[in-house]
Amino acid sequence: MAELAEAEHLPSAVKNAQFVMMIQGAWGLVGGVLLLFVLLTASDGVRPAEAAAFCFTIGIAVLIGWLAQKRFSRRRRVWAVAILLEGVMLLGGIAAVIFESELGIDAPIILGLIMPVIVLFLLLLPSVRAWFNVEGLPG
Description:
Helices cover about 75% and strands about 0% of the residues.
């Protein structure tokens, strides 16, 4: 009986991951709006790569926000998609460091690296894996 009550208890790591993911979603939406403003005011027009960057930024932000609100579902696919999206965000942060190196590393790039690492760490904790019932999966 005690095991059932403990299994139903939401781990604090899930709450913390949700909080960081909500910050990521809000950060992405703000970044997308700022990028849209820059694109619309550019004198040389919008290039396809810039439009793709805008769509990617908004899409990831919306997905992260949606996933952050799905924490009570306890479905494996919610956990798996969160791992996948955080991995994509981490790769984006690494790419920003590589391709923006001539500009120097600033706070947004550092946050873009640190926040996905924090969420990935939290999602891979044993208590979170047990919450989402993914204990038998590698990771």
